[in-house]
Amino acid sequence: LFVDRPDLLRYRLGEMRPVVIPTSDGMSMVSYLSLPPSVPATWRPGLDSLNLSLPLVLLVHGGPWARDSWGFNPLVQLLASRGYAVLQPNYRGSSGFGKRFINAGNGEWGVGAMQRDLTEAVDWAVAWGVADRARVSRRVCLQRPMPVLLTLSTRPIDAHRSPSWAPPTAGTLRWPGCASPRTSTAAGSTSWGPRT
């Protein structure tokens, strides 16, 4: 009927594809896979398809009582335009998939089944020819850095490829060169910048 973002018409965007990823305990994760614009529109994940073996960013939404949905996402398009596959899994505990699914995340935060969902999403992407296991990054949104950090401790991948922004650890752990809060005594306000 209409184009709600006419300025985007001049760009070639990566296609966001809905996928359903089965978990080892019989649940189904409705997820979204975005691929670089160079991937043909006819390509579908599957055993008979050409293996893409792309670098993969597992983009974990906040919450857990939230969800990813289909639609334009500037971060996803930035990554896809740089050649990354982006997988956004709606792991157990995500909202919008019924009471059973949201309650399946209760008590599973950290190292339980909710955490296993993220690992199985990566395994799915590798098994179906989307991703190269050696080039997987887990990027986490505001409220969900701990699952990524915990995954690194239970099933290690290169930690330098697993960035997080605004993690709860920011107030307690300090790494050289990382931004940390500093208070301006003149104005009494808090700002972010390099430690002095």
Explain the overall architecture.
The protein is α/β, with parallel strands linked by helices and 196 residues long. It is 19% helix and 22% strand. It has four helices and seven strands. The chain has helices at 74-81, 99-103, 113-127, 145-154; strands at residues 16-22, 28-34, 54-60, 85-89, 131-140, 180-183, 190-193. The strands form two sheets. It has a five-stranded mixed beta sheet, sandwiched between helices. Helix 3 crosses helix 4 (145-154). It is globular and about 45 Å long. It starts with 15 loop residues before the first strand and ends with a strand. The relative contact order is 0.15. The model is unreliable at 140-144 and 169-196 (pLDDT under 50).
Q: What's the number of extended β-strand segments?
A: 7
Spell the H/E element sequence: EEEHEHHEHEE
Strand order of the largest sheet: 1-2-4-3-5
Alpha-beta classification: alpha/beta
Low-confidence stretches: 140-144, 169-196
Mean pLDDT: 77
Shape: globular
Q: What is the percentage of strand-forming residues? A: 15-25%
End-to-end Cα distance: 54 Å
| Helix count, DSSP H or I runs of 4 or more residues | 4
Most strands sheet: 5 strands, mixed
Helix content: 10-25%
Q: Nearest-angstrom radius of gyration?
A: 18 Å
